[in-house]
Design goal:
Layout (H helix, E strand, L loop, with lengths): L10 E3 L6 H16 L8 H6 L10 H20 L5 H15 L8 H16 L5 E3 L8 H11 L9 H17 L1 H5 L2 H4 L24 H21 L17 H11 L11
Length: about 270
Amino acid sequence: MPAPPATPPAKIVAADFRSPAMKAFVQYIVRTIEHERIRGRRGWQEHFESYEWPRGGAGCREGIAARRHFHDAVTRARESNDQDAARLKSQVCNAIAGWGGINAPVSESDVGGIFSTIEILSSCRDADSIDCQNIFGRRIATASKVYYFSNPWAWTIYDSRIAYALNQLAFAFRNENAAVFDRMRDHITFAVPVSKAIGRKCLFGNMWNDRYAPQWFVRASVLLREVASALNAQSFPAPQYAINGVEGWALYHVEMVLFMLGECRWVEQHHA
């Protein structure tokens, strides 16, 4: 199989994620997670209910509460115009980094880049195409968490676990639907950010490059929206908990499921 492109396209076209080939991949994700036993669990509900972070008893209910808390915190920091605005933005970025298990402080310049990007993302949420060139992508595992909490219905976390889950699903899809996969390979060969969990390595062999982190983050976000839409269209039972009390699957529910699937390598169990 030819290697993925060295330079992912900077412009993400929304229509590409509603093509027949992409719809086939979305349905593959929906079907695989619902019907196959992965890591001892089967079904969207069961995987959502197994969510745990941080380790030690914080389950899906607490996970939703944390998302509600950080969504409110990012919103307050974003809307603040007084002399404390810079402090609030720094505090929320570092609190989110800590929640994600990262102790390294987020620099003032990175905080500025992250909040500037939140405004960019807000303006292009429903755009026909998204230009990733001005999206801040350094420390994407942390930066994407802040983007996610700014609008968890639109943008996903893109850390090693989410990327690794998508990477394994794409790899399995390629093995079963090579011709369809080849028509959209540039969109779904997700690179995996460098992680302490050294076992989370990209199954396609494409190496991580911070320069292209924004493209992978945006692609994953648009894909997860499509997955959530498919779950709702097919009347999958809704998760018990929601950030805003609105019933149904949202991007953040899908993210929580993928977070659990990305904890380890499972693809060979079903798709050797």
